[in-house]
Write a structure and sequence with these properties.
By secondary structure, this protein is mainly alpha-helical. It is built from 6 helices and 3 strands; from the N terminus they run ββαβααααα. A 3-stranded antiparallel β-sheet has the order 1-2-3.
Length: 179
């Protein structure tokens, strides 16, 4: 029904879905495959045909028969910036799963998860909401996996940012949010 690939900067697609195996009304002897290419700008300008060829090649890694598949129809949809690039300070403005209203908890990609708004963030917030519900019921349990600490250049940037901000080289998050 669904499978994901390990990231490689040389590859185009990150996950595949076969809707003919997911939705009963679409079940046929043919497959209806969709895929996602996150941050497609990294691979440069390619034609729709090249995108379909790459998808078939990458699909064949898990399903070797795909290399012999006859494509009946294809559609390449390009959505620039489908996952947004947040400004500094945005995370602080995202709400938590607790609302302050009785037993009302929220979840979604827009909830404060320390992961950019995405499917991963939505899934993480669902686990965080479940944790909050269990805690409120007196049965605390850890379900969400915390994000990995930054490494390399990102870690250095995080450490340097407060000093650079203090020196006036970087804007303060409150000066950027909402602009």
């Amino acid at each position: 029904q669904f499978w994901a690939r390990s990231y490689s900067p040389r590859d185009l697609n990150c996950d595949f879905y076969d809707y003919s195996n997911i939705y009963r009304q679409r079940a046929t002897q043919n497959s209806l495959i969709t895929t996602n290419c996150i941050y497609s700008e990294r691979v440069g300008k390619i034609t729709d045909g090249q995108a379909v060829e790459a998808a078939l090649r990458e699909l064949a890694e898990n399903i070797p028969r795909a290399s012999r598949a006859r494509v009946i129809h294809n559609l390449v949809v390009r959505i620039p910036m489908a996952i947004h690039c947040p400004y500094p300070g945005v995370e602080r403005r995202r709400p938590g799963v607790k609302t302050g209203v009785g037993n009302l908890f929220v979840a979604g990609d827009w909830v404060q998860t320390h992961v950019p708004a995405s499917m991963e963030s939505a899934a993480c917030s669902g686990l965080m909401a479940a944790e909050a519900i269990l805690t409120a019921a007196g049965k605390p349990k850890k379900l969400a996996v915390p994000p990995s600490p930054s490494e390399g250049v990102s870690a250095m940037a995080e450490k340097l940012a407060p000093r650079l901000r203090k020196m006036g080289y970087l804007p303060r998050p409150e000066d950027v949010v909402g602009k």
